[in-house]
Structures are given as structure tokens and as C-alpha cells.
Input
Amino acid sequence: MSEGDDHFDVLIVGAGLSGIDAAYRLQTRCPDKSYAILEARARIGGTWDLFRYPGIRSDSDMYTLGFPFRPWRGDKSIVEGPAIRDYIEDTAREFGIDRRIRFGHRVGGASWSSREARWTVEVLADGTAKRLTCGFLYLCGGYYDYEQGYRPTWPGEEDFAGRIVHPQHWPEDLDHAGKRVAVIGSGATAVTLVPAMAATAAHVTMVQRSPGYVVSRPSLDPLAPRIGPALTRLKNVALASFFFNLARRRPERTREKLLELARDELPEGYEVERHFGPSYNPWEQRLCLVPDGDLFRAIEEGNVSVATGEIERFTAGGLLLASGEKVPADMIVTATGLVVKLMGGVSLDIDGAPADPAGRLVYKGAMLEGVPNLAFAFGYTNASWTLKCDLTARYVCRLLRYMDGRGYRTCMPRPQGEAAERLALIDFSSGYIARASHVLPKQGSKRPWRVPQNYFRDVLTLGLGRVTDDSIEFR
Output
């Protein structure tokens, strides 16, 4: 294919937080590079445009979830989804990134040619198949399937007289005012939905097979106006890292403290251990954040109740648990989780041979072994997503400048003996991670193949460390 409007130095896939961040870093640190962003949806925002359920909000503070080059300056630290989407869109507009986005461009696959040292990207745009080419492919499409969420089934669903909805496909016409609602789930989506729906519903019951840790946090950061967004960001990163490491070192004490904090927020005599005391240790799964204790407050006010136990079946009037407990409901929301789809589900091949990411080692948390000229954005599981994605974008720019300065056209991670051991990429016991173990790449036991889940270590490796080492080859 000849050079022209369909060839770019870099193609970015996805116009959410990580895609807009990648574009900003690229155009400021590699201004001579041509690039475009391919976005399957019709709007900027990714996750924050997709989800429309009541109460949708960040589960990380905006000082760390926001862009470091355009700090969040709102009054609230924990904010609603529409405000996040507007922030992403305003950022793209301010820096001219929005003019580089091709909306309605769904990437299906990408093929690498070693002879031409380029990717050919297969795109479906408005029902028409197109091919674009690039020297470097940067996948920023997130980690879950936008088309469908995880949706188990239960006996008797056909008997239920009301409406069953999944949060990932929230109907615009859905009215829950004055109705009894059962929300199945105990994760971030459930603890967001429950107090939001309780504001107008007759009653909301959070039905969970097993409990999770729930932590209250002020929606306003009192220090932020005094110390500014940059120091607030650093403070929040440091505190999150401290508490995560403390939880891993002293899990029993951390568990006791989390339950004590929940007990302080709930009515006297409430069964905290039963409903908010998981069988796993803190940070073996992600903690659920509730701003200003809204979930606890709704329970105390009597608008929300929690039912813990296995669901035996749906009934005409709600749910029947294996314990015999009945949950009356006019509407059921299945907040049962995500389906992991790495890199937006883009299929890869190298010189005609499939290059499945599953099982491949991850290099510096940003590239795949044996896959040339490709990077992907994958955020932290124990901190804000954007923190890691921004470090990855900065590293990609350093890598591209390194290659240009030495006349290289191709870079490819290739493990040496020290990375022979292959470990799970994410050290979490969460259901969506366990269900995706067969599709996720692996990490090694040592750097640069180890994924530390530590922002400060990654600053040294991705931001300040050497661009090259013995585990990446250039041609």
C-alpha cells in the first residue's frame, strides 16, 4: 500500500482516558510523528461514555484518575460518570486531539509484516471494510468487553414478573421510582447502584453470594484547595501505596480495622461480619469505595438492606435464597461483573501466523514478548488506571525517539533465561480475573517481565530508567 491518508507512524486504538493520554504524550514528545485514534463508538470517553446506570462514578479519586498534564480542578474528588466524560472530551478538544479521532472505526485485526516493518489494521467503518497501516500500533481499548457483561443465569428467571436488566446495557426508559429493587452483586457497580436507586425506589436489597470489603471515603478532599492538584495527586498515590502494602503485610489487622470502620457507620447490632466481612484478605480483591458512606447511610436510614447467600431461584415476586430467605422485588439488576477482553479483542498475526496474547510474557507492563512495534495500555489494579497508562505512554515516546535516533524500524521484546517462570498477570482472586485466566498474558518473576503494581517503581523503570536492555531487540 502506498503512503498517504491511510498510513500513520502510530495508530492508537481507543478514545478513552488511556487513548487521549497516549495521544497527548505522542504529539508533545514526538511531534514529528503522524498519528490517528480509531474509536469504535461515536463519542469520546470509553468506559465513561458506555455506562449510563444510576450513580455511575469513579472508584478512584480524580486527582490520580485525571491527566497529570491537565489536572482535575473540580471541588469533588469522587465524581459522577458524565463529569468524567466531559473532562476527557474537554481535554481532547483543548489539545486538538479530537481532530485526530476517527469515530465509528472498529478494529477487528492487525497483521504485522516483517518485510515492510509495518502493521496493516483491518477496520470496519460505517459498514465498510477498510485497511490502515502504521509503523507502531498502540492499543488503548481497555480490558473488558463493551458488547456484553458477565451474566450468569438462574433457575426460574422466566417466572419473574418484573424486569431484569444488566448495568452495562441500562435502558433509557427504565423507571425504578417507587419499586422494590434487588441488585445482585457486591462489587463496585453494585455499591454504586444501590444507594443511587434507593433515593427514589420503595426499597433496594443488595443480594450478594459473599461479601466484599466496603470503605467510606469523603467525596471532597479538604487538603486539595490548600496544596493544589499536583501535591494532592502525589499525596493520594503515596497513601494508596502505603495502605496497599500495609494490607499485604498485616492482613488480619487491616481486616479488623476495615470492619471497625464499617461498624462505626452502621446501626448498632448490625451483622457487619456477615455482610461486610469477606473470607479473603484485604486487597486480594479490589476494595469497594463508597463516597461519604452513602451505602452505609442508606442502610441506616432503612432504604437499603443486604441479603447474603446463594440464590436458589427467581420467583414471580423476586428471589429465593438457598437459606430460605425471600427477597421481594419488582425489578432485578444483575450487577454481576465484566467479561475480560484484552486490548479490545483485536486479533493479531505476525507474518501470517496468529499471535495470541494469552500466555505471552508482558514486558515492562506495556509490550508483549515476540510481538514487534506494539504497546498496550493496562492500568493498575490497586490504584488509578490512568497512573500506569500515563507512564506507559511516556515510555512509548522514549522508545520511539530511541529508535529514530539510531535508525531502527523494529523493536521486539524477547525474554532471556531470567524470565522463564510464567506467573499470573494479576495477583487477584476476583471472579472476573479468574474467569479470564485463559486469555490473559503472563508476567515473569523478575524485571523487566515482572509487573510490580507499584507506581513509584514504575516511575523509575518506565519514566527514568534505561529505554533498552537485554530483553528487547532492535532492527
Remarks:
- The chain has two domains: 7-147+339-474, 157-334.
- Residues 311 and 321 are 4 Å apart (CA to CA).
- The chain has a mean pLDDT of 93.
- Residues 224-249 form the longest helix (26 residues).
